[in-house]
Specification:
The strands form three sheets. A seven-stranded mixed β-sheet has the order 7-10-6-11-14-13-12. It has a five-stranded parallel β-sheet with strand order 2-1-3-4-5, sandwiched between helices. Helix 8 runs parallel beside helix 10. About 50% of the residues are buried. With about 375 residues, the chain is an alpha/beta fold. The two termini are about 15 Å apart. The longest helix has 17 residues. It is globular, with a radius of gyration of 20 Å. The chain binds NADP nicotinamide-adenine-dinucleotide phosphate.
């Protein structure tokens, strides 16, 4: 599979859009997919699916719509079950939870669909790419191997956990140049990360909850895969020691991560900032409909970044970094923040899909 950007494929060139389906379309991530895909130049929401509770209802009756205007054409779509016999689109955006995703996403991949998953089920499988396009879009080349070993005519591509996404995007530029080998990270995670209705108000208002189930192991295992190298049908994980602490805080959107970082070759603060500012990331992921102008943006203010002020930078796709400074324990300290539901979920999946449409993978899948 070639990964260079080609001119947009025949469908886009003919002014047609790809029909796409959203699984678990009624939840927090499903709704973010609808907002991200509204007016998308290449994709058109053709189908929505959710649990038995919603099947047979129109979207407007089944979902408690949370933000902005519900697109009128989506409002009238009737929800189906998350089953490839009922959902026909070639591109599947999945916001399913892991307990359902494990079976359902494999069924779609087996049925020849290209599935963009937000669940943890397949992230650590050695033949499944775990991708932030700018960070490790080259890992998408694993898909050829995935098909060979699984016998699928479709494919599964995963996003990282939303807190790993913040950390991986902020560290990727520095890792490429200076080799991150140790990381202490503590997160302050938004309530929208727990879905809807999420954390009870009496547990979170005026409070910090210093535990999020399975979140610390996810950061510790996913980061090394994402910052690893694609080598001959496998990902060689980056050799690094990661220790994570995760907390839920009373912020609506935007996960913040404070980090102390150790390097193979310690950069000065100025070198680190310059590297972060000049970083573009994996070339084929740039200039696509969902790509932000800056995948990583370095703030100068001593009190930045802040979720309330900066979470929507780059339409929610920019990772904000600030307070890069010396660390007495490891080499450097810094803060990073990004939108957990957009960059950390729906927007990340849509950008993955744009990379695979623009390089012809989706077209090849549909034609085979
Ligand atoms: P959520 O708001 O609780 O939504 C759950 C969704 O799953 C609803 O659409 C629900 O449909 C559907 N569902 C529940 N049981 C189902 C079943 N048996 N079959 C089919 N659909 C079913 O959760 P969320 O925050 O959107 O999270 C969804 C996934 O994304 C999870 O895997 C989560 O870990 C991951 N994720 C979330 C975030 C975030 O910031 N929220 C970020 C990254 C990844 P009904 O309305 O019909 O019940």
């Amino acid at each position: 599979m070639k990964l260079e950007t080609k001119s947009p494929h025949t469908r886009q060139a003919n002014g047609e859009r790809w029909p796409v389906a959203i699984l678990a379309a009624t939840g927090a991530v499903g709704q973010a997919f609808i907002r991200t895909l509204k007016d998308h130049p290449w994709f058109e929401i053709a189908e929505v699916a959710a649990s038995e509770r919603s099947v047979g209802k129109t979207y407007k009756d089944a979902a408690k719509w949370m933000e902005g205007e519900l697109p009128p054409d989506v409002a009238e779509l009737v929800l189906t079950a998350c089953d490839p016999s009922q959902v026909k689109s070639p591109i599947i955006f999945s916001a399913l939870d892991a307990d359902v995703a494990t079976v359902a996403e494999a069924a779609f991949a087996r049925a020849g669909r290209v599935v963009f998953s937000n669940a943890k089920s397949y992230r650590m499988e050695p033949d499944v790419p775990l991708v932030i396009p700018e960070v490790n879009g080259d890992h998408l080349a694993l898909l050829t191997h995935q098909r060979k070993v699984r016998g699928w005519t479709g494919a599964i591509i995963t996003n990282a956990n939303c807190s790993t996404t913040v950390v991986a995007a902020a560290l990727a530029p520095l890792h490429e140049k200076f080799g991150v080998n140790r990381l202490f990270v503590s997160t302050m995670q938004a309530i929208s990360g727990a879905g809807y209705p999420g954390v009870p108000s009496l547990d979170i208002l005026g409070n910090v909850v210093p535990y999020i189930g399975d979140e610390e192991p996810k950061i510790e295992r996913e980061l090394a895969k994402m910052l690893g190298k694609f080598d001959n049908d496998k990902i060689v994980h980056a050799p690094m020691i990661v220790t994570a602490h995760t907390s839920r805080v009373a912020v609506e959107n935007g996960h913040t991560a404070v980090m102390s970082v150790g390097f193979d070759r310690k950069p000065t603060v100025e070198e680190a900032i310059e590297t972060l500012r000049n970083w573009k990331g994996y070339a084929p992921s740039l200039g696509l409909p969902t790509s932000p102008e800056h995948a990583v943006f370095v703030h100068d203010g001593l009190d930045q970044p802040q979720p309330r002020r900066h979470v929507m930078m780059g339409r929610g796709m920019t990772t904000s970094v600030g307070r890069v400074r010396e660390c007495k324990m490891l080499d450097l300290r810094m803060v990073a923040m990004s939108h957990n539901v957009i960059r950390g979920a729906a927007g990340g999946s849509v950008l993955n899909a744009e990379v695979l449409v623009s390089n012809g993978f989706v077209q090849e899948t549909v034609n085979q």
